[in-house]
Write a structure and sequence with these properties.
By secondary structure, the chain is an alpha/beta fold. The chain has 2 domains: about 150 residues, Alpha-beta prism (UDP-n-acetylglucosamine1-carboxyvinyl-transferase, Chain); about 210 residues, Enolpyruvate transferase domain (UDP-n-acetylglucosamine1-carboxyvinyl-transferase, Chain). Helix content is about 30%, strand content about 25%. The protein has 14 helices and 24 strands. It has a 4-stranded mixed sheet with strand order 22-23-1-24. Strand 8 and strand 9 form a beta hairpin. The longest helix has 14 residues. The radius of gyration is 22 Å and the shape is elongated.
Length: about 425
């Protein structure tokens, strides 16, 4: 099995180009199922979750071809309605094909989703909302069997709680529902706005009518479309933290600072020196980190996907910090590994107490999920000596060419079998 060797204590200097967003690409790929015309996508990241979603599309009958930096999807002959467990077991985004299949074909059989073991991810919010559009469903042996006997019909739907996946699934499905659908209490992550922009360009009729409400007028057909996926804000945040942690001087290129303004504000508050430009963020040499209390929250709050990374940085703070995890109930699995490197982090319920003034020691480590795996790399980059990180297949689900990008800015890191 592949692992990473990281020789730490080097300052990172230079520039890193941010890849396309995994979390925007996945719902956009699912949404291509609505169309019978060609879809041309650029800036898709080269990560395993994208490859898995493309396998799902192919299994459903989509024609998928790469041409230079462009991905071409043609669904002229897409008629299959079954997404198997073998394909969606590694990522929760597999459930996003449910909405478009019901909208286009009136029927679907989709495996319950997998992904990282960071907490339960019930899809009851998806299913309850879809039932209001006229969907009948049952769950048998790990599969959702769903039908829309009379097609999807528009409705007013208020989500019981903010859910990124349910918002995406319902936005896509409602594009083909008869009449008007109004979704309220929606998630408003930038990746959802990117999905909406893609659907509009494809010929769907969507309009935000308030901060968390969207109005969708059903259509019957779509246009051929070319679309460039947004940059990955979680990757950008990860490298900003890497620069601060190693006392380096990094330019993060290809990201609009406004989409991570909460993260930038918090980093500045704890003493990280940052300069913002159009499509670029410069992180200057940072010598002192201050303590802070943070809680994760739906956008525009601090993202759960950066919680593990900022925890590593707060181990270097002048005093004790507190992190409250409000999104997933099992997202502190990296804590045990960080403590093995010398961190002093204790957990009480959904709160982590992070002692400051820590010097990380190199160690052999085990990654437990996607964001945990990158937090271990960050800690290893600032530790003296050689750390070994096992089970890095988690990492490959969401970070494109991470060793190459880090090597380019001075990290001593390599992948070994």
């Amino acid at each position: 099995m592949k692992k990473l060797e990281v020789f730490g204590a080097n300052k990172l200097r230079g520039q890193i180009k941010i890849s396309g967003s995994k979390n925007a690409s996945l719902p956009i790929l699912a949404a291509t199922l609505l169309s019978n015309k060609k879809v041309f996508l650029t800036n898709l990241p080269k990560v395993n979750d994208i490859e898995t979603m493309l396998l799902v599309l192919k299994s459903l009958g989509s024609f998928v071809k790469r041409y230079k930096d462009q991905l071409i999807i043609d669904n002229y002959n897409q008629k299959k309605k079954f997404a198997s467990y073998n394909l969606v077991k590694t990522m929760r985004a597999g459930i996003l094909v449910l909405g478009p299949l019901l909208a286009k074909l009136g029927e679907a059989k989709v495996s319950l989703p997998g992904g990282c073991a960071i907490g339960t991810r019930p899809i009851d919010i998806h299913l309850k909302a879809l039932s209001k559009l006229g969907v009948k469903y049952k769950i048998i042996q790990g599969y959702v069997y769903a039908k829309a006997p009379n097609g999807l019909v528009g409705a007013k739907i208020k989500f019981s709680k903010i859910s990124v996946g349910a918002t995406e699934n319902l936005i896509i499905a409602a594009c083909f529902a008869k009449g008007i659908t109004i979704l309220s209490n929606c998630a408003i992550e930038p990746e959802i706005c990117d999905l909406v922009n893609f659907l509009k360009k494809m010929g769907c009729n969507l309009k935000w009518i308030s901060k968390r409400s969207i109005k969708i007028q059903g259509v019957e057909k779509t246009n051929e479309v070319t679309y460039n996926v947004m940059a990955d804000r979680i990757e950008a945040g990860t490298y900003l933290i890497a620069g601060a942690l190693t006392g380096g001087n990094l330019k993060i290129k290809g990201i609009e600072p406004k989409i991570i303004k909460t993260e930038i504000k918090i980093l500045k508050k704890i003493g990280v020196k940052i300069k913002e430009k159009k499509n670029e963020i410069n992180i200057l040499e940072t010598k002192k980190i201050k303590n802070i209390n943070i809680k994760t929250a739906p956008y525009p709050g601090f993202p759960t996907d950066l919680q593990a990374q900022i925890m590593v940085l707060l181990c270097k703070a002048n005093k004790k910090s507190f992190i409250k995890e409000e999104i997933f109930e099992n997202r502190f699995m990296h804590v045990a590994e960080l403590n093995r490197m010398g961190a002093k982090i204790s957990i009480k319920g959904n709160k982590a107490i992070v002692e400051g003034k820590i010097k990380f020691a190199a160690a052999e480590l085990m990654a437990t999920d996607l964001r945990a795996s990158v937090s271990l790399i960050l800690a290893a980059l600032s530790a003296n000596g050689k750390s070994v990180i096992n089970r890095i297949y988690h990492l490959d689900r969401g970070y494109e060419n991470i060793e190459k990008k880090l090597k380019k800015v001075g990290a001593n890191i390599r992948r070994v079998n």
